[in-house]
Design a protein that fits this description.
The chain contains 18 helices and no strands. It has helices at residues 4-33, 36-51, 57-62, 65-89, 94-121, 126-157, 160-181, 197-200, 203-209, 212-224, 227-242, 246-266, 273-282, 284-289, 297-325, 331-343, 346-359, 362-381. By secondary structure, it is mostly helical. The protein is globular. The mean pLDDT is 79.
């Protein structure tokens, strides 16, 4: 049985480590190389490891979720220390640092699906699963806020290498708590018949294709994958126009606060497709209203808060529905295939958003994102009454 106290501590400490690392590593590259090209390579590596998640699914399902979760964090911790060593000792060896950081990112893509699958194995019913997922999502967003705040404070007093050492130590602490959290969890026995790896890569999608909800959610996620990166480009642009860099962090914090409250609300709701579709569509309203209030900072931050709240509710309910409707034998492959669908638009969207902002302005980009949300939300509604 899952030791929830140790699990939540592990998730919190590990989340802070990851949040700190992602921000500090990019900052170190920027100040060390003074090259946006190198920073762009790092961002591309992180995006690519997420978009390739579909190839990790067969490996995750082949072994116990417990072992995959534990060993992926173990390897991640080792390479966090290796990245820190590269920064300390080989200040000009950016290639080595990028390789180590890439391995850290891949480990995270293995850990998250296995970690989520463990939750399903250790709950008694669907409502408990939804409550647990909402708590984990709240923790994830809380540590993102903490990571944003801590990174700024730590970098004020310490050099990047020292902060990365702190990240490595936090990851080690998280690993210890994870060991105790999973100590009583039984190892899932994989199926005896194991098809060849290449035959399993798209088996997750085959399962998704034959499930009405998952099939509609998969295509809606591909569309939505173009929205989040565009918002990442949009918010600093609006903050820059205000002339106050502090607004950017405030925008980010407002979104995450909305996400945390949305996660709390989602944990009390029944998992239904119409609720997912309704909140999905509703998230377009505060986004489109941003067009009219981009100069009224208090209202604008309130709209970002509402966007985060509605996004959180449909994300958490959808994740619960994915686990409920997926067979345990293919759960890892389903989760990684969905992960690919939610990430695949990232590189294209980032470039397209930049072009739109430079040539057409903020209004066109916001309208484009709102249109994508509406189309993908209506597609979710098409699955009502058709789930397998």
């Amino acid at each position: 049985m899952l030791n929830k106290k140790s699990y939540f501590i592990s998730r919190t400490v590990g989340g802070i480590a990851n949040s700190l690392f992602s921000m500090v590593f990019i900052w170190w590259l920027q100040i060390s190389t003074k090259s946006s090209f190198i920073v762009g390579i790092a961002e591309a590596i992180f995006s690519t490891t997420a978009a390739l998640s579909i190839f990790y699914g067969p490996i995750i399902d082949r072994y116990s979720f417990k072992k995959t979760s534990y060993y992926s964090m173990l390897v991640q911790t080792v390479f966090l220390f290796a990245t820190t060593a590269a920064v300390y000792q080989f200040n000009k060896s950016y290639i080595l640092a990028l390789i180590c950081a890439g391995v850290v990112s891949i480990c995270d893509e293995f850990f998250n699906p296995a970690d989520r699958a463990i939750l399903k194995e250790t709950v008694a019913d669907e409502q408990e699963l939804n409550n647990l997922i909402s708590k984990v999502s709240s923790i994830d967003q809380f540590v993102n806020i903490a990571g944003t705040v801590f990174s700024g404070l730590l970098l004020t007093w310490l050099i990047s290498a020292n902060v990365m050492l702190i990240c490595s130590l936090l990851s080690l602490i998280s690993l210890v708590f994870l060991f105790y959290a999973l100590k009583e969890v039984k190892n899932r026995v994989p199926q005896e018949a194991r098809p060849k790896y290449y035959k399993q890569i798209f088996s997750g999608y085959k399962f998704i294709k034959n499930n009405q909800f998952l099939n509609h959610y998969f295509w809606s996620s591909i569309l939505y994958s173009f929205v989040t990166p565009a918002m990442t480009i949009l918010l600093p642009r609006i903050a820059q126009r205000s002339g106050k860099a502090s607004f950017y962090s405030m925008f980010y914090i407002c979104f995450m606060l909305g996400f945390i409250i949305g996660a709390t609300i989602a944990g009390k709701l029944t998992v239904r497709i119409n609720t997912i579709g309704f909140t999905w569509l509703s998230s377009a309203i505060p986004l489109i209203l941003m067009i009219f209030f981009s100069n009224s900072w208090l209202i604008f931050m309130g709209l970002i808060f509402l966007f985060g709240l509605m996004t959180s509710i449909h994300n958490i309910l959808a994740e619960s529905m994915i686990q409920i409707t997926s067979n345990d034998e293919v759960l890892g492959r389903v989760l990684t295939t969905i992960r690919t669908s939610t990430s695949i638009g990232g590189p294209i969207s980032s470039i397209a958003a930049g072009i739109l902002l430079d040539n057409s302005g903020e209004t066109v980009l916001i309208l484009a994102c709102g249109f994508i949300i509406l189309v993908s939300g209506f597609n979710i509604f098409r699955a009502i009454g058709k789930t397998a």
